[in-house]
Amino acid sequence: MGQFGEVSAERGVLLDRAWEALAAGMPHKALAHGLAAARWLDTDLEARVEGDTLVIRASPQAAHGADASGLRLEASLVPLGGPAIRLEPTADGAYEARIALDAMPKRYDYREGRYERAWGPVQVELRARAGALRGGERVTVELPRLG
Questions:
Q1: In whole angstroms, what separates CA 19 from the centre of its chain?
Q2: Phi and psi (nearest 5°) for 18?
Q3: How does pLDDT run along the chain (147 residues), one tens digit per residue?
Q4: Cα separation of 41 and 60, whole Å?
Q5: Among 19, 41, 70, 131, which residue carries the largest CB count within 10 Å?
Q6: How far is CA 137 from the centre of its chain?
Q7: Mind giving me the DSSP string for 87-119?
Q8: Cα distance between residue 30 and residue 20, in whole Å
């Protein structure tokens, strides 16, 4: 564990690019990648279906010593669209959103000729922000088909 705390894959790539740029004699590029690594918000993201509810849960972590006050986490469902889903803080320090499957955006079923609740694989895209800090992650969840 170093100055940036536990190094995630995303943060590791930024740090590798910083070292590569420094070795190539490009200090400005190295600085840009180093700053991006210091401003990266790691997020452990999971999405699962519990009964008739989609649960989106994230546990963000800023680099050691970074100010993550005013943290805001929002998710989008791809390819469904619709408004951003705000994740709210929980008692254990994580952030969570619960969406009833019946309230999910509808999509058109061309075979049936009607709109129906989404089912099948859906990608959850998370965006995290806190001041100058940024982060994001994606996971795929399988929504059950009705009836």
A1: 26
A2: -65, -45
A3: 445 456 677 778 888 999 999 999 999 999 998 888 887 778 889 999 999 999 999 988 766 666 677 889 999 998 887 789 999 999 988 899 999 998 888 888 899 899 888 888 999 999 988 888 888 889 999 999 876
A4: 6
A5: 41
A6: 3
A7: EEE-TTS-EEEEEEGGGSPEEEETTTTEEEE--
A8: 8
